[in-house]
Amino acid sequence: MFFVKATSHSIFRRHAAHGGSATVRIHVRNLAQMFNSFDPSPFWDRDLDRTAAEFIEDEFREKLSAQTWHLQVHALEGAELASDLQAAVEHYYERLAASTRLKLRENLQGGELALLAGIAIFLLCMTARQVLSGVFHGVPRILDEGLIILAWLALWRPTEALAYEWVPLYRRRRLYERLARIRVTVRSEAPPAVVVGTEPEPGHAGAGSHHS
Predict the structure, then answer these.
(1) pLDDT at 212
(2) 175: left (phi over 0), alpha (psi -120 to 50) or beta
């Protein structure tokens, strides 16, 4: 990938939150690196590069206490794409927030339906135990315990989904919603100076040379 840590032209830098705001800085050679170069989307807006997005998400996930988030991108080239980058970040995370919101709603609806089915199975198993105990004087222990286990298993999975599985989706949705509102600043940087060594001219002795 073109995003490489600890290089002079393409580097991610972490900055902790200060007070009520947090800033994350990204250094790239060309601002075009922030966009998905293989974006098959037919829409006008450009898509954010997934590698850059993952870094942004990881960094801001550690700064949830900050009220304001800022993203600064330092680029040697391509600063004219600054407005496109702001739009790409907004649209990218708005789509992710909407998708996660839909998954969360479907997860809760599925959990509710599974809970109703689990309650029905639970009541059916408990009723079957009572009927069998009334018909037969001695219900086999393995059958009785099997009905009890089946009854509780029917409630365990939907209860877990409603009690725990929605939490990661909710947190992810909140993160995407906040990232869709971050302000992006692009700063153009001059390329580093390059020092080129020169060969000594013919007829001139180099340092430390000796003429006999």
Answers:
(1) 41
(2) alpha
In a 3-state reduction of DSSP, which class is residue 151?
Answer: helix
Find out whether 8 and 62 touch, Cβ atoms under 8 Å: no
Run of H or E residues at 12:
strand 11-13
Domain ranges of the chain: 11-188
Residue with tokens 């800033």: 23
Query: In the numeric block, which tokens belong to residue 2?
Result: 């073109």
CA atoms of 10 and 12, how far apart (whole Å): 7
| Single-letter amino acid, residue 29 | R
pLDDT digits (tens, 9 = 90+) for 15-36: 544 458 899 999 999 998 899 8
Q: What is the greatest pairwise CA distance in the chain?
A: 124
The Cα 205–Cα 192 span in angstroms is 32
